[in-house]
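Morning. Coffee machine broken again, so started the prediction first thing and wrote up yesterday's gels while waiting. Chain of 301 residues, entered below exactly as on the submission form.
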Amino acid sequence: MKTSRTLLLLAVVAISSFWMSCKKDTPIEEIITMSNAVLRQGNLPSNQGSNAPVINTVNHNSSFIAGGGSPIQVLAVAQTGSLSKIYLGLDGFAGYYEVSITQSPAFLNPLIAQSVTDDELTFLISVGDDQGNISETYTFTVTRINVGTGKLQVSLTFDQNTDLDLYLVEPDGETIYYGNSSSSSGGMLDLDSNPACWIDGVNNENITYDDQAEIEAGTYTVRVNNYADCVGTTVNYSVVVRYNGQIVPTSGNTNPYNGSFAGGTAVGGGQDAGQVIFTFSLSSGQVGTRTVPTSKASFKN
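Came back before lunch.
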């Protein structure tokens, strides 16, 4: 007769196996999406050919936020021919993305779905050349940082331990940023990373409006500022805006937008700092019930 302890162990194993089989059936596009990429079925291509390319370095964040980006820089070399493809997958999820490239390093920015609740995601990357050779798979794991997604979400993600700042100017002119993290309408900067080079390594910033916020109709302006150069090198970043879960149309640049700041170009801060990334308009607002402070103490100038 099996003991209670043995039965419990068997039950745990069965539940774990069931969970992993269900997870494997989840399409990758429900977790991450990528523009300028082809969605493929099956397993990630890997380790093909005697002269396969070699992935030297993959620069990436250690964390992610639901609704934000996840910038990845891949440095690889071809042993023969030229690099032509990057393949990107997620461990435990079905399918992968194929991205055409012409040079290394190559920059990728998969967008994380707002609905993601996994505490960790493990990315799989391989690189192919124009001779059909494919590198071994490179893997890395990122950890979720809890933020608000809400009815309206504006997020900034960057790939270095430096201090970039996210700004959102509301239709009435009030600006949400590190010096005013909660607006009178209920918008909140609920994640401010690496303030004044106090490095936390999160490398994400997030502004959210929940169901209690009063989202104004009108035009919003998104800015990003290079407050402090903490690393002395180029930083790549991504900005994305979602309203009611959808990527909103923007003017000025596309949404999402990928950009960079060169090392040594920090300018400090303030309410009016930063480069305009894009504007977007909401034709109808949302009336909420939240009452919040209009400012928050900050040790930045």
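The first strand starts at residue 32 and ends at 33. Going to sketch it on the whiteboard this afternoon.
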